[in-house]
Amino acid sequence: MKLSTCITMILTFSVSSVYAANVSSPIQIGIAVAQTSNVALFGQEQIIGAGIAEKYFNGKSGVNGTRIKLVMQDTGGDEAGAINAFQNLISKEKVVGIVGPTLSQQAFAADPVANRLKVPVIGPSNTAKGIPQIGEFIGRVSAPVAKVAPYAVRQAMKQNPKIKRVAILYAQNDAFSSSETVTFQETVKNMKLQTVTLQKFMTTDTDFTTQATAVLGAKVDLVIVSGLAADGGNLVKQLRQLGYMGIIIGGNGFNSANLFPVCGKNCDGILVAQAYSPEANNPTNKAFVADYRATYKKDPPQFSAQAFTAVQVFVEGLRKVEAATGKKITQMDLAVVRTELNKTLRKGSYITPLGEITLDKDGDVNQKTFYVSQIKMDAGGKVGKFVIVK
Amino acid sequence: MDAVQFLQNFINGISIGSVYAIFALGYTLVFSILGIINFAHGAVFTLGAYLTYSLAVGRFGIGGLLADLQIPFQFSFSVSLLIGSILSGLAGVLVERCAFRPLRSRGADPLLALVSSLGVALVAVNVIQYLVGSEIYSFPSDVYGDIRPAFVIHFGEKLVVVRTVQMVIFAVSLLVLALLGYMIGYTRIGKALRAVAENASTASLLGINVDRFILYTFFLSGFLGGMAGSLVGTSFGIAGPYFGVSYGLKGLAVIVMGGLGSIPGAVLGGLIIGLAEAFVPSEYSAYKEAIAFAFLFAVLMIRPQGFLGRSQMQKV
Q1: B278–A210 CB contact, under 8 Å
Q2: Within a domain: A364
């Protein structure tokens, strides 16, 4: 027997065995994010957000009286870990849908597995181009970088309308940064600004003297950096130390408190576009922020808000499935629930901590409001926070 | 490239090149005595940076087992640098005791010592990670006291900027090189070290305690490694426990380019690699390491012994 025939038979068997069961009570939703590895910092924020959503929606009678239960699986920071977590959640835990994974790079590896087995996935933080196009069962609540990034440039122009000359720097060995910089470059061009110098670096670099002196020599009014917290923060620090006084915009990689110890007081003033503001004025966000603040004594970060939103989309989708079919989810076949849920997710809008959102036919998020934050460091340069600017 | 740009690149190059030189000297000292490369040198580099940071800031850090553990004292940067380097020197001695002496006493192949030093390096880096986490540590911007972070020299429309930390690195490196040169050339310890390097058996017959001088060498090597790590750390931050690894590779490139075992060669090699990196146009500076190593490859093709290797080699 050919190997491919063998694999097909095994897959068919495992898929059919997965299908031949009703949904358990409480209804299980899988959370596959990074709880270990260097991505864990983001993953842990996501776990918190999802946990608050579980408590909040169960407090509001779950899915029309049936409680939901989150099943956590650690993906680690790599692709293999994400695939394993997805397989476990689908075959062993028999979840109705999956929230995850943390990284776009992991999504490109693990999402096809779920799509093949017809299990709906909502990406809470996958912002790279092409994620919803992986398949009909794949969606996301994290707005793609192309939609978010231009807001920061507009804010910079608002703060200094005289900006003409721009320096753009990006980490060329990071897929996300390389794709983000294209958006920034297009935005700068569309706004009739001039990119005077385009510099590349590596996420592993520590010495940015060459780039920083080149930027200073180019006499620019605005610097845009697409990199991760470590390299990007170091670059900002060296730019400021060399005397660059103009506005700095950081990409999504700067959207992390990990940046603060790297550039210290030199982080002050950096503009970062964000998909979430704790100040968003709707009841879901207010409840979310209140719960988060009560436990952690600070404002919730974007990653937590997006994970909450992903769980919310599933819960509201399940409620709609019950309404449409007139049956309890727990009395329906798992495979049917997964397919119906996936169809329903793309209908109607959701009032979430991210504001009002809808999912388009591809499963991509349409978010109405975006925000720009400015980093404010304390006098000692140790503690920082993102302050929404208007 | 105009003259101003040339001057800017030259300043950037000699500043980082000088710290490459003192780091590479640590490799050279051990190589000239034992004829092997100490792969744990990169780990000592990392350790030195963390030690100096902790002493200068007064606490261990933000992550790992020692997170937020305060130290009851806090020193100025210069004192922290000195103590951090001395402690790194002692770590170098520990490396010799763990990775080199047991094998040497059994007459093992030098290749085994090389592998055991690699093992010690991996263990050390992981212990560091366990203790202080993998977060990035940045020295406070006022670590040198209340002095301006950079100086700008105007040449008409153009300007050359020099970070204060670049000047500090260059000055400290020059001072260390001068002291080391004096010690090796003109003191009894230096003469004894050179004798051991020339021929350990003969030196032993002349009454020199070879084992003790090997220990001194490892102390000096660790001292230089720790100091280089601290200087790089103040300039660019400590980018996690593995940040010594890439510098370790660069240090190897430096000693190979300068000539294995040659002290002037290590200094020359350091400056050349530093300048080679600095003169890579900024648009391509993401490739600077590739270009520096390609340059090394080209040099070895023409002169396999390095610039000052073998024929003019001055052993310690």
Answers
A1: yes
A2: no
Domain span including residue B260:
3-312
pLDDT at B107: 85
Report if residue A366 sits inside a domain.
Answer: no
Residue B138, chain A, CB below 8 Å: the answer is yes
Q: What's the burial of A261, exposed, middle or buried (CB within 10 Å: 0-12/13-18/19+)?
A: buried
Considering the domain architecture, whether residues A260 and A310 belong to the same structural domain is answered as no
Please name every residue paired with A122 in a beta bridge, in sequence order, or none if there are none.
A99, A139
**A365 lies in a domain?**
no
CB-based contact A217:A190 (threshold 8 Å): no
Domains contained in chain B, number = 1
Which of A217, A238, A258 lies closest to B159 in CB terms?
A217
At A38 the pLDDT is 63
pLDDT tens digits along B92-149? 999 999 889 999 888 888 889 889 999 999 999 999 988 988 777 888 878 888 788 8
Regions of chain A with pLDDT less than 50? 1, 11-19
Q: Which amino acid is at A148?
A: V
- Cβ separation of A266 and B141 shorter than 8 Å? yes
Q: Which domain holds residue A109?
A: 3-143+281-359
DSSP class of A333 = B
CATH number of the structural domain spanning residue B161: 1.10.3470
Query: Does A84 contact chain B (CB < 8 Å)?
Result: no
- Tell me the per-residue pLDDT of B189-212, one tens digit each, with 9 for 90 and over: 999 999 998 888 899 998 999 999
Minimum Cα–Cα distance from A207: chain B residue: B236
Cα A348 to the center of its chain, rounded Å? 21
Residue A228 has a pLDDT of 84
Ramachandran angles phi, psi of B113, nearest 5°: -65, -35
Number of domains in chain A: 2
Q: What is the mean pLDDT of chain A?
A: 90
Q: Are residues A225 and A139 in the same domain?
A: no
